[in-house]
Every structure is written in structure tokens, then in C-alpha cells.
Amino acid sequence: MRRAGVAIGLALALAGCGPAPEIPAHPALWRVADGDTTIWLFGSIHALPPRVAWQTPAVAGAIAAADTLILEVPPADDGAARAQFLALAEQPGLPPLLERVAADDRGVLARGMAVAGQSPETLDGLKTWAAALTIGAGAGHIADADAANGVEAVLTRAFAGKAIGALESRDGQLRMFDRLPPESQRTLLIAAARDALSAAKGDAALLTAWTAGDAAGLAADVAPLRRDPAMGAALVTDRNARWASAIVRRLARPGRVFVAVGAGHLVGPESVVSMLQARGLKVERVE
């Protein structure tokens, strides 16, 4: 963990002093197998800064050996994904976003929107959960994180010409947020605003944990979601259970499958890995 933190600090210190050095990474990789099926489980980060060298020999070998890639949602171009998001996210006649939260939270929300580069006029027409996701996406760019550098984008290119599947649909993923109770959506919104205000520090901590393969650090990143029972169930625990069941079903068919999902879904209590182990499967960490 200390080695990863030093590498990240060095990269930031040298910004603007010529080409940035690569950030060495050793993210966690697990394997579950039976006689004729091997499934690798890789914890991803959806958006990364450039030049993070995460394809270790173990990870690169698994990618090369796999005949199928499975992601959380199917790949889509930015335009199509944005259109699908807006179709569910926009709703006429909503109260202004600042009026949807408690008076004590309005200052944090206003500052978070500003830091993320979002104006109230832009977000007022969005449902609360959608505004939260938009603030989160805007804040990601503060730390130079970009989905184009993210694990899923790199894997999609690497598996060109091979089978690519998904554990859930993009529409289904968005509807999980849309079904959250109003109070949970407000909690998500304020959390996104607070995260935006400390984006550089928070993203650095997440990246440090991920590059070091630090399971405890990654689990800590997901922990705030679990504090809201409805949000923790909908966005983490219930999804993990569905994904674990899908992996068990996939083991019944021969093949070599590389599964990449958000890193927080594979660590800690009630993770996909722990749920598979609870079913009696041997899940071996190989990186």
C-alpha cells in the first residue's frame, strides 16, 4: 500500500514536468474453477487517470486466456449511453435541486455542484439520483479520471472479436437508482456533493487501495453506501447476490470467462467473493 501511495504521489508531483510516469498497479484478481470452466473475477475502477499500468502478468494472462468477457452492463458508445440516461433521468416540474434537501445541506450541495462544474439550471430538471450521478461524474474529472482510461473501456478493446456479455442491462442499472426511496436519493445527492469537495483526496485514496490490491481499503470505499439500508441493499448486496448466482450458473458450462465488476463488489462482507465461498466454492486470489 505504501509503495502504491508513493508512486501516485510521484506522478502528481511530476505533472507538468514532461511525460507523466506510469503508475504501477497490482489490483486484485480471483479465480474460481471446476473441471472444464475457469472464471476470473477482477475488481475494476470505471474511470482512471492515464498511464495506470494495471495489466500485471497474472491479469494479462487471464485476459489472453479468456474466451468471454462479462461486464456489469453491455458496452455502449457515449451518445447512446447519455440518451438512455436522460430518458429516465429527466422529469419536468421538479422542485429546484437545492430545495429538495434540508436547509443545512444546501451550502454543501451548492459548493459541490460548483466544484463538479455543474450549474443548478443544468441539474434542476433531473431526478435527484440522476443529479447525484452527474455531480459524481463531473467530480471525477478533477482527478483526471476518465472512463476512456477505465478498466471496462480497455477490456472491451482487448476482447474485440470475442464474446462480450453483461450481468445486467444498462436500463436495469439506471432503474435501480430510480427506484430508491426519496430519502435515499437525497442521501446519495449530498454524499456526491461532499465527495466532489474532496474529490482529489478521495480519488487518490481509492486509487491507492486499488493499485495495491488492498481489499480492506476498497471495502471502506463501499461502506458509506451500506449506511443507508435501502441504498446498500439495492446498489450493493442484492446485486452481489444476483451476480454470484449468475457466476454459479456460468460454471455449469465449459469455457474461460473474465468477469470485471466494480472493485467494491468483490471485497468485504456480503461481497460476490464471500457469497461464492458461502456456497462452498473455492475462490482463489491469484493477484
Automatic annotation (TrEMBL):
InterPro entries: TraB/PrgY/GumN_fam, YbaP-like. PROSITE patterns: PROKAR_LIPOPROTEIN. It comes from the Bacteria. Coiled coil: none annotated. This is TraB/GumN family protein.
